[in-house]
Structure formats: structure tokens, C-alpha cells
Task: structure prediction
Amino acid sequence: MKVTKYFEEAKGKSLISFEVLPPLKGGSMQSIFDVLDPLMEFKPPFIDVTYHREEYVYQKSGNGYYEKASIRKRPGTVGICAALMHRYGVDAVPHLICGGFTKEDTENALIDLNFLDICNVLAIRGDARKFDGRFLPEEGGHSYALDLVRQIVEMNEGRYLDSNIENGARTNFCIGIAGYPEKHFEAPNFQSDLKYTKNKIDAGADYIVTQMFFDNKNYFDYVDACREKGIDVPIVPGLKPLTKMYQLKSLPRMFYVNMPEALVKEIEKVKKPEHAKEVGIEWCITQSLELKEYGVPCLHYYTMGDVDTIKRIAKAVF
Ligand code: FAD
Result:
């Protein structure tokens, strides 16, 4: 079923959903089940699976020199989605990115998803590869998530890249996109980022999942700004608990988010590094309860493989 249909049927009650990463190449599906088995008691109607583009690495070659090689460290998104649907009877939401895909690759991936009965996708651009400096699309691929949304909408209308295909089967994808309460890091300002988000909604995207945030005011302000701009789709808050002291600096560096002063002070007060996790969990529970009270469509947790933490939070909130 479509993600937006779950929201409609919940009639204002907040749902819960989880996001998992494919294991590193060489890992097994069991590592995903180990994360999700204990979380299924909370009855998530859907689970997101991230997509990871190939990366450049430098590998030592026979002559002692290093050579640049391109590898995909976390393949398997589509297979994992199929396995989750089979094992848990939930809907799986694969993330689909622009990076590394030609338009034809995208079309073929969408055909596979459709044949597997996957009817939800999160359409995003993807980040720049390390050493590229900025996002570089594949030749013949999309530069922005907006173009990816447009391609999915075309397939929903039965239009394929090959214009000779007449009466093409219509796919029926519900399309999620990413949103940034604290602005996407490349955008010159918040309003500019919001304008492009609105373009994706106008092109046919159905709902937004936000980047993580640690101050709910950022989410509330973002929702207000979206509504003012005419963006009226469900906006799902993405949440990640802080569990390690060093994340006070690493999360802002990696995800361009701010840490509220009160959280920084609480973390800096802890006597042992392991106590930082307790502070982070309590913070995330407080955030979640307030968001639930506000009436968010769903609380979406970035699990990052830390099942115990997410389970404690889910138990306290649901
Ligand atoms: P876009 O919407 O294309 O926007 C990118 C930038 O360009 C923004 O600054 C925007 O303001 C600007 N812009 C947009 N359209 C235009 C235009 N037409 N002209 C000029 N500027 C424009 N990454 C992964 O690799 N795999 C994942 O699975 C993944 N999952 C994610 C899930 C969520 C919920 C979120 C929030 C992010 C996720 N990301 C993932 C990261 C995401 O790929 C990056 O944040 C990426 O840098 C931007 O993606 P986007 O879809 O927001 O890009």
C-alpha cells in the first residue's frame, strides 16, 4: 500500500517507521533481520532502505602504486526490500538516487521495483562522491531529484523513455522526497531550498521525509514555511538519537544540522562517555513525544544498526 494511504488511514494518529542501511558488501541479510526483528512489535507499516552509490577508493596495485578504483560498498537495496516484504509483510521503501544512474538505468530499476510489487520510492539526488568535490550526475542521468520525480511520474502515466512504446503499463509509485528543516547545505538560503522542494511537490511528489534535527522548533518552523509556500503534503520528521559524545561534532559536520545549546550542555556534563548515550536517548524520547503530541503523520527513525537504542525509544513513545 502507498505510504500516503497509511497516513490517511491512521486518521491523525502518528505511525512509526524505520530506516535501515544495506550491510557492507560481504555481510548478510541476517544483520538486517537482527535490527528489525526486535522492532516489528511496534508495527511499522513501512521500512525504508537506503541506496549507496559507488565510491572511489585508492587500492594498492601490484607495482606498489595506488590506483583509483570505483566500488559499491553497500549494494543490495532492491533485494533487501523484497526480503523485508516477504519476511514481515510490510511495505518497503527503497531510496532511489540520481547519482550513478543514467535515465535508462533508472527506468530499468523502476520496472524491477514495479514487478516486485514495490509501490513506494524515496526519490533523492544523492551526495557527491568523495574526491569529486561536487555532485556530478552520470552522463545521461539526472542532476536533481526534481528530474527523477518527473521520470517516475511519467512512468506512472505509462510513458517510457522509448517513445515507440505505446500503451505502456502504468506504474503506481507513491513518491517521497527529502526535506531540510535547517536548509540543504548547498542551497544559498532557506527560501531557495524551499522553492526547489515546492517544485518537486508540484511535479508530483507525495510526501516529504526530513533530514534529522535535534530541536523540534526547526521542524515546526519548517512545516509552517512549507504550508505558507503551498506545500500541503505530509511531512515526516526523521529522527536520529545521539549516542556518542563525538557525534556532537560529527553529526553537524556530516549532516549540516545544529545541536541545541541545552543538549550540548547536557552531553558536556556527563562524567563517562557511555552516559552520553543515556542523554541522547532521553532527548530523542522527549523530541518524539512532543512531535507525536503535535500530530506528525509518522516518526521515522534512522536506525543505523543500533537496535537497542531505537527499541528503548520506541517503547517509551508507542
Ligand atoms: P535535490 O532536491 O536535487 O537538491 C539538491 C540541491 O540543489 C539543494 O541545495 C537544492 O536547493 C538545489 N536544487 C534543487 N533543484 C534545483 C534546480 N532545479 N536548480 C538549482 N538548484 C536546485 N543519500 C544517498 O546517497 N542515499 C540515500 O539513501 C539517502 N537517503 C536520504 C534520506 C533522507 C530523508 C534525506 C533527508 C537525505 C537522504 N540522502 C541520501 C542524502 C541526499 O541524497 C543528499 O542530502 C543530497 O545532497 C540532496 O538530495 P535531494 O534529493 O534533497 O536533492
